[in-house]
Amino acid sequence: RALEQAALRRDRLAESIDTAAAGAKTAARDQDAAAEARAALPEAAGLEDAVTAARGALAAARERHVAATGRRDAMDRQAAARRQRLAEAGGEAETWRRRSAEAARRLAALDERSARDRIRLGALDRRPGELATALDRLADEIVEAETLRRQAADRLVAGETRQIETDRAAREAERRLAEARERQVKGDAVLETAAAARAGVEERVAERLGCRPEGAALAAGLTADETWPRESEVERRLRQREREREAMGPVNLRAEIELDELSRQVAALDGERADLIAAIDRLRQGIATLNREARERLIASFDRVNSHFRRLFERLFDGGQAELRLVDADDPLAAGLEVLASPPGKRLQHLSLLSGGEQALTAIALLFAVFLTNPAPLCVLDEVDAPLDDANVDRFCRLVGEMAADTRFLVITHHRMTMARVDRLFGVTMAERGVSQLVSVTLESAESMAGEAPGRAPSAGGEAAVPSA
């Protein structure tokens, strides 16, 4: 249908072109006839009426010629517009032909897929019977498995019951074993205590009486013939002596060992403390060295950035002065940064007191000063030229062009002057409704193509327009 409509429009345009050509020929004949009539006039001085009539005819012919020329120009414009629409119709026809070929390929693929689906459908038709047989077999297997599961569950319950009883018996045995071990430990402790007490008694007897315990009675002057003190009296006096000894406090037999251990621990802690103090001193020296080097580097970098910033500010503003200052602290590492600027004709003031365009241009100068101090391979600028006028945009573009030798700039902008200075443009166009497409234009190639186009002079400004959405 689109091809038929395009052909119909083409025929109408051809008819319009023929009609315009016929009108142009008629006007040309009228002009020639008027010229011949003017040449055939007699040269008599008294034929004023004939001259007046001839002039009127000439004026009418000129009016017809002007009207015909206007109609021809209008028809030429209509013909150009129709040629353009024909070209668009041809493009649409080519698009529809491509879509038709793609649809044919898709139909062939769908036919092939339909054939495969029919084969699969035949196999699936046989599948229910197979599934029913398998289902019956699985049902029998499920019944058998359920029987085996119940038997296994019964055996599992019985095993768990035996395990619980065994665990209970094991815990009881472990408890009795623990009690026996505890009694054994207590007995060993009592035995060791008794042995130690006996040894202590023997040692004290030997130390005080200078004899074995068996000779204590003889050392005390008691003989077997004499009456010995009653045991209760001896025990009372012994308990009294024990109370007196307990009142004195127990004797720490490990005092020397514990003293040696504590001395070694104190020595080790003193060594660790000395190591920590030395490490703290080394750390403080390292921090002081790093801070000193950081201050030196910061001051050197700050001086370089400040120098570049002053030079770029004077260049972007075509005059004026600006500087960076460290404020709010004596230590450069803890100081803040203050930007002071003085555009031409204004006093030196803080950045926040400048206008929006002046703030943007000052920020650009500071950014480029940092890039000159520490160059980077890539810089992205997003709408930095939006608040600038044409003169400032021109200075900005010249500066970007000079710095592009060391840094690749990616500039997001809508300003025509900035787009005219870049090497390559990227835009987004909507070839069809709802379909966005990325378009890239290399300005050098576009200028060469525009210069080679017939009947069109190359663009002197180097601007290239990319339709965007």
Textual characterization of the structure:
With 469 residues, the chain is mainly alpha-helical. Helix 1 packs antiparallel against helix 2 (48-209) and helix 5 (255-316) packs across helix 6. The protein has helices at 2-40, 48-209, 216-219, 231-248, 255-316, 356-373, 390-403, 416-421, 443-452, and strands at residues 321-327, 336-342, 349-350, 378-382, 408-412, 424-432, 435-442. The longest helix is centred in the N-terminal third of the chain and has 162 residues, at 48-209. It has 9 helices and 7 strands. The protein has a 3-stranded antiparallel sheet with strand order 1-2-3, with helices on one face. A two-stranded parallel sheet has the order 4-5. The chain has a two-stranded antiparallel sheet with strand order 6-7. Strand 1 and strand 2 (336-342) form a beta hairpin.
Query: Major beta sheet, specifics?
Result: 3 strands, antiparallel
Assembly type of the chains comes to: single chain
Distance between the termini: 31 Å
Please work out how many helical segments DSSP would assign: 9
In the sheet with the most strands, the strands line up as 1-2-3
How would you state the average pLDDT, rounded? 80
SSE order in H/E notation? Answer: HHHHHEEEHEHEHEEH
Q: State which percent range the strand residues make up.
A: 5-15%
Count the E strands: 7
**Global Rg:** 58 Å
Shape: elongated
Poorly predicted regions are: 454-469
Share of helix, binned: over 70%
Category from helices, strands and their pairing: mainly alpha
